[in-house]
Amino acid sequence: MVKIWSDAQIKTLRAQLLDWYDRMGRALPWRVRPEDRAKGQMPDPYAVWLSEIMLQQTTVPHAAPYWEKFLREFPKVTDLAQADREQVMVMWAGLGYYARARNLYKCGQVIADDYGGVFPQSEAELLRLPGIGPYTAAAIAGICFDEPTVVVDGNVERVISRMACVDVPLPKGKKEIKAVAAQIADPKRSGDYSQALMDLGATVCTPRSPKCHICVWADFCTAHKRGEEERYPKKLKKKPLPKRCGVVFVLRGAGHVLLRQRPDEGLLGGMVDFPGTEWTNSPPDSMLNYAPHSADWARAPQQVVHVFTHFELTLDIYTADVGDLDVLKMAASKADDLFIEAEAKLKTLALPSVMQKVWRSVLG
Ligand code: SF4
């Protein structure tokens, strides 16, 4: 790739960004501030790994309480590895993208069993672990061990694509953006530099109305010079999400409710839901054929709509109250994946967000 900036300009870009970060970088609970880093304090790779996995597709304010809860419950990766997977899934409930939780648990076990509880330090070695992709491997190796990696998340994509006016739309443009980012990345303070660039994207080079007037890179930014900041990053037009629909059956009795354990594989794998139909493009013709037990089912007036990454789901809810625990037990005995639980304990189960919505809708 053609060099965009001269060596002298790159030196200035690095110095400007790091100087800004030293003064203005965000104080995040999993982060070691540059002044402490300069004194030799390095971040705990376990804490950084947890934060990076949680922050995929999730905002900092939403992820932070989960991160704190996980570290309180499992202070070390070996504590996580020894926990029940069910407990991990329950603690993850509400964060979404549940494959992350399953991989988190698996990865914790590999680190505990195969690496003696010590995180590998190189990007290449980290990439071999379950659930750790190129971004996370580069982030952990850079932030925790100062390996000169190139970390490109959504914030960095935005800054770099604007700096260099990368015209190839995302996701194809990722390769070019990474190549441009690699040209400026600071090999000496790799961890601080990566975090600085992410912070610049998160707080200054924001998706709408970027604050170019306070941006330390404004003099070098091509999109800013052209007044075209918001044209970048270019993205392929998203197709509208396909729609799917389904039915859930909420069978209650004597303060208990019938639930289903989802299989490990597939969407919401390992989580708990209410029994129901498959989620398909068109509604099943005779919904009550799918009811887990015969009862006086009533259709709830409200549907629940939930947006997943690849489709939008609309659920019809049918409810019935059989008033008797034995009837619920009989219903649960019909399939291995069915079980009953006290309604008061629903909070302690790994109920995904869509099913939490269903339950809130049932309670009115
Ligand atoms: S000058 Fe504006 S568009 Fe360019 S990097 Fe800075 S904030 Fe982003």
Summary keywords:
364 residues; alpha+beta; Endonuclease III, domain 1; Nucleoside Triphosphate Pyrophosphohydrolase; 7-stranded mixed beta sheet; 15 helices; elongated; binds iron/sulfur cluster
What does this structure look like?
The chain is an alpha+beta fold and 364 residues long. It has two domains: 225 residues, Hypothetical protein, domain 2 (Endonuclease III, domain 1), CATH 1.10.340; 121 residues, Nucleoside Triphosphate Pyrophosphohydrolase (Alpha-Beta Complex), CATH 3.90.79.10. It contains 15 helices and seven strands. Strands 1, 2, 3, 4, 5, 6 and 7 form a seven-stranded mixed beta sheet that branches. A hairpin with a 4-residue loop joins β5 and β6. α1 crosses α12, α3 packs across α4 and α10 packs across α12. The protein is elongated and about 75 Å long. The termini are far apart. The model has no long low-confidence stretch (mean pLDDT 94). Iron/sulfur cluster binds next to α10 and α13.
Quick structural summary:
This protein is α+β, with helices and mostly antiparallel strands. The protein has 2 domains: 7-231, Endonuclease III, domain 1; 243-363, Nucleoside Triphosphate Pyrophosphohydrolase.
The separation of the N and C termini measures 58 Å
CATH superfamily of the largest domain: Hypothetical protein, domain 2
Note the main sheet: 7 strands, mixed
- Average pLDDT figure: 94
What is the fold named in CATH at topology level of the largest domain? Answer: Endonuclease III, domain 1
Number of helices: 15
Number of strands: 7
Strand residue percentage: 5-15%
Low-confidence stretches: none
Proportion in helices: 40-55%
- Rounded to an integer, what's the Rg over CA atoms? 24 Å
Content-based structural category: alpha+beta
Second-tier CATH architecture of the largest domain? Orthogonal Bundle
Bound molecules: iron/sulfur cluster
CATH hierarchy class name of the largest domain = Mainly Alpha
N-to-C series of helices and strands: HHHHHHHHHHHHHEEEEEEHEH
Count up the domains.
2
